[in-house]
Request: fold
Amino acid sequence: MQANVIRRLFSPEYMVKPEHRLGELPDGRTAYKNALNIALPSIIEMVLMSLIGSVDTMMVGNVLGAEALSAVGLPTQPRMLILCIFFALNAGVTAIVARRKGEERKEDANATLRNAMMIAFGLALVIGSLAIWLAEPLMRLAGGDQAESEKVFDDAVAYFRIMTAVLPLNALSMCICAAQRGIGRTKLTMWVNMISNLSNVFMNYCLIGGNLGLPRLEVRGAAIASAIGMSIGFLMAVSTLLIGGSHTGYLHISIRDKWRFDLDTVKSITRIWSNAALEQFGTRFGFFITARFIFALGTTMYAAHQIAMQLLTITFTLGDGLGVAATALVGQNLGRKRSDLSMLYGKCCQRMAVVTSLVLGVLILVFRNSLASMFIGADTMNADQVIYHAAGAMIVMALVQPFQTSAVVLYGSLRGAGDNLYVAFCSTICVSVIRPILTLIAVEVLHLELAYTWIFLMLEIVFRYIFSSIRFAGGKWKYKRV
Reply:
């Protein structure tokens, strides 16, 4: 009986009903192997990026303490609010390039990349300049006016300005990697981001505490280290388009290419970009407001919140890596007129997400105190309280894992089909409306501690899972044009 239930959940023959099949389906081994070939490098890439980002936070917390953790955490939501423009653009790039590859339209795929790169660079120059100028008001809006010391605010402003200075390079690097994921070259983007982030960690060691003969720059050193890592990532990403040229690389750029905006290509990008931008702005606004509410809990709980959020980001990347595979496979197979295979691979990725999230949830529950203690030095002020509150939030995080990873993968599948408007609507409602309201109730009305506040925070993830499941099962995404 148990074996039959597992078979019905994981076997391709049960994932796509006979009336929806347009040809022969691959067997289970082949289907999961195809999905893993794209997903595994993305998972490794994103998990390592998140781990390295967590190491970044650990190095700041262990060397400098809770105030420094708050200082590097404060700019997070303003930065993400800026980056959401480029995340939205990249969602369009991945979906369109994947569809063009499935349609065997190589030159159109390259035209999409070139146009997207020009858009990304121009926007990054303008937005980055404005953000540097408005750094202080942005930090106050994020909650800096409630900072318990002037140093937290000053360090946050400096950190934000340094990170924003390299926005044009970061935007181009993300755009190129998004296009490479669309054609399934996830191993390549894995190496780009791994080396970039390892460089960041090395420079953190040198600049935060002052090692290997370099000055001790503390929070500013962490920002400079990140800027150096992003610059290295940009150089590597560009090199992936130059090495081998058009003869060996599906995606390539050359100075002889047509570097002028193509109206039809820009329209295709904008069609998905606008919907994805609505989603990104909505979700980032929700995260922004939520973070401000939690900052009102004080430096100790906010530092604990930052630790929990770092670990949540790591768990999110497991689903995100599988979501990348779902986006690419759904888009490519819709381009080949095989919507049944798109359905199959979306479900395969979601099943793998559930299994990995259950294992991860158990590990978080068992090792939550040890994980939290890695982020802050034991001899720093209020370290015991920071660890206690972070570990409490991680219990909630562990329980919500299956819902989180499933929602991420299903949204990735819908994006691959170009169904970004639905994703945008659901994400905006959940993150921009439900999450802030629940957080406000927890913090300002019920006056709950961090762990209980996280229960309210995580409820919206369950709603996201429900909405994405209903949409994907309904199949309307099969008829979206890109």
